[in-house]
Fold:
Amino acid sequence: MVQAAPKAAGLHDCREAWVTTLEALAATDPRIVAVVNDSVGSSKLGGFQKKFPDQLINVGIAEQVMVGVGAGLANGGCIPFVSAASCFLTGRSLEQVKADIAYANFNVKLVGQSSGVAYGELGPTHHSIEDFAWLRPLTNLTVIVPADPWETAEAVKWAAAHEGPVYIRLSRMPVPEIVVPGRTFQPGKAQVLREGGDVAIIACGTTVHLALDAARALAGEGIAARVLNMHTINPLDDEAVLAAARTGAIVTVEEASVRGGLGGAVAELTSAHDPVPVERVGFPGFVPTGSVDWLFTEYGLSQDGIAAAARRALARKRK
Structure:
């Protein structure tokens, strides 16, 4: 297993890594096509459009059409990356994602931009916290939640090479690089970032670096917390989750609803095979308008909040 180094001081926008990688892929493969819903700017695809004007299709504000166009392009041999705000891509177009992409098993790559509560003050209509619960039941749709720019680039490269539907969930919020010696990316396989036998913290996306911060704080109290980067929500790494359950207590952390997301998936698995206390850190339902920092703090998505959840899980641990 690997041991994560302390996070770097700098913060990075994963969308920059996504578009840089997509441009590199498109330069060598004309099958790579971007499809957007009047979201060139928010998808950071302005440069891509200038470099590859024939490889970008803008359908306007018509998300259901956008997903259908992506399906048609895939059926014609292209590799479409369908990019839009995740609240609209997965909410407004859910039927098309289900029927035209997943059920048809078309080779479409869905890229949910500005996911979670990244839009902050725009409120619940723009929060995308239900997408895991909506997409996890689509069994052949790989759901990836990169934790930093490196993982974002690796996810985009893997998606382009993979034959089948993929959903990549990106945020607009800057995050630090997760520094791991010899780091590799394999969908469906969680990565242990920190060893520990007292409690396991399983996190994804923008919350991974916060989980590491919490583990370091807990270490100061004599609590050894294992930290897992669960970058793939579907398929879930069952083996890693059950190994985490052997610590006797689990905390899940996600910038999403705790109903049906990562926390739900972990609770489903452990309750069936190795029941242990599971504390789910995330959003309990609709959350109000507010800044990202306020929303994260208010709902425990912070070093202190995650550490407190770990203590609650430990208090419930089997004796």
In short: The first strand starts at residue 32 and ends at 36. Residues 190 and 240 are 7 Å apart (CA to CA).
